[in-house]
């Protein structure tokens, strides 16, 4: 996809208890039991934010969709892709980082490998659906080349390149990024064990270096500029998520709410909204204070985009009201249900995006189709999330009954 998902985030975050990490006087991480926090439990804010990101991805990746005028990319420098990757890092610590000492290194490495295989299968399903759908559709009506790279629309010589991530088609480039980031997580964990800040400092240094030299990237047969989501840059966002997850666990579930940080985050998001809002698209005067002089690059994760998503994340994760809303409100629980099954929702949503684009290009973009495509597409995703949640509940109940 041309904007960044999922793995947003690992949809299979496991509820595991663990010991928190605290830095000793020598700077080496030592294990001490965290202070229990009464009434906490699962943090539904992460699931809800991930659910919002997944739904916005579905809407954003249909260019003809008028609903995408109301998603976060129009009111800030960052979009759902940044949220997705940050939360992928956060969820990865919960699913794997806490388990290394409890379950052992071999067990957790197997779990990480299994998750990477699942992501790879999801990528394969999306590529196959795109290629076969476009090839079949153009037998009946012309299909624009931007729906699928011409190299993939003809012949079979592309297969090995796509399967080896040497060729990343547009709209199908976020799961490969997630696989690379998740595969590098054990190294990040080792650096965290040496010192709690070492891994983040090194990660930030690599990101900064890429911002000075964006040509450092993975190769892409379909694009001479390389991967749209440069892994050397985006790994820092993933690392921020990992570190934030470890810190919130150590502190008892929330980021510390500092008044100055809250004010700074709000002020930056206001500036971001004014600068990024498409004023002319709405027929309004251009109120951007810096005009076109600020164009935050997405490929190498410009600092403007990074600060945007970090500010959003901090405001949510330091707010107890946001925690209560996600856990107790009906809407919060619906969104959290979508976020809990991020891989399945992302794969289905991406395939639905293709069909929506083909429908609009073939039959027009009138209001009737606009309403129908959005209602049907979102209904399918909400239904899928509910079905997957119910299935998971049944499986857990059956496992519990079998263990008695």
Describe the protein's architecture and organization.
The protein is mostly helical and 404 residues long. It is built from 16 helices and two strands. The protein has a two-stranded antiparallel ribbon with strand order 1-2. The longest helix is centred in the C-terminal third of the chain and has 37 residues, at 367-403. The radius of gyration is 21 Å and the shape is globular. It starts with 19 loop residues before the first strand and ends with a helix.
Low-confidence stretches: 1-39
Major sheet size, sense and barrel closure:
2 strands, antiparallel
Order of helices and strands: EEHHHHHHHHHHHHHHHH
Q: Determine the fraction of residues in helical runs and give it as a percent range.
A: 55-70%
Biggest sheet: strand arrangement: 1-2
Structural shape: globular
Q: Distance between the terminal alpha carbons, to the nearest Å?
A: 46 Å
